[in-house]
Amino acid sequence: MAAIVLDAGLGRRVWERAMLTIRLAIEVDADLLPEIERSSGELFRQIPQLAWIADDDVQSATRHREIIQQGTAWVALSEAELIIGFLSAEVHDSCLHIWQMAVHSAYQKRGVGRALMRTAQSWAEANKLSSLTLTTFRNVPWNADFYRSCGFFIAQPDASPMLLRTLANEELAGLPIDQRCAMIRPL
Q1: φ, ψ for residue 18 (rounded to 5)?
Q2: Mean pLDDT for the chain overall
Q3: Taking CA atoms, which of 85, 108, 126, 130 is between 20 and 30 Å from 47?
Q4: Mean pLDDT value across residues 115-144
Q5: What's the half-sphere exposure (Cβ side, CA atoms, 13 Å) at 76?
Q6: φ, ψ at 62 (rounded to 5°)
């Protein structure tokens, strides 16, 4: 299925893809997004040493509101207009840093995450940013491998002070830092 880019006004872009619409997140979406992330995290139960992530804290509705106000958060809607996924990001220097992307477990493996990534990339290109960045698990198939298929490559964390800080904060939060990596997608 090919995605079609539609101009949604004010330079915003919407992706439509048979029964899928991507739009900018709005404040009322914020309360729904933590549950999407919880559902998405259920996949970690398949990896015994990372199963605890399925029960870990998720990004708060308050934090979602902060990012939504910046205009760098998108939601994926099903044909029934239910939120089934989201991507939240922030501009740091000349990069769009992706903090979180999550797709409800019932809608995974259907191109929702890829459509969210294309939307973020289009927005970053339209805003003349130099790259997309993120941190993720190095050896979890739906993490680093997925992002590689979207054009990312593993970067040296010292390539960006922000990536270094992010990885340090993840370690403080209890993530196994030896399994994490920073990734970048030049634009």
Answers
A1: 10, 105
A2: 88
A3: 85
A4: 94
A5: 29
A6: -60, -45
DSSP secondary structure of the chain: ---EEEE-STT-EEEEETTEEEEE--GGGTTTHHHHHHHHHGGGGGSGGGGGGGGS----HHHHHHHHHHT-EEEEEETT--EEEEEEEEEETTEEEEEEEEE-GGGTTSSHHHHHHHHHHHHHHHTT-SEEEEEEESS-IIIIIHHHHTT-EEE-GGG-HHHHHHHHHHHHTT--GGGEEEEEEE-
Residue type, 38: R
**Three-state SS letters, 80-97:** CCCEEEEEEEEEECCEEE
Would the pLDDT of 52 be above 60? Answer: yes
CB 82 within 8 A of CB 103: no
- Token duo for residue 12: 């915003």
Tens digit of pLDDT for each residue in 158-187? Answer: 778 889 899 999 999 888 899 999 999 999
Rounding to the nearest 10 degrees, give the CA dihedral for residues 129, 130, 135, 137: 120
Q: Which fold has domain 4-186?
A: Aminopeptidase (3.40.630)
Residue type, 81: E
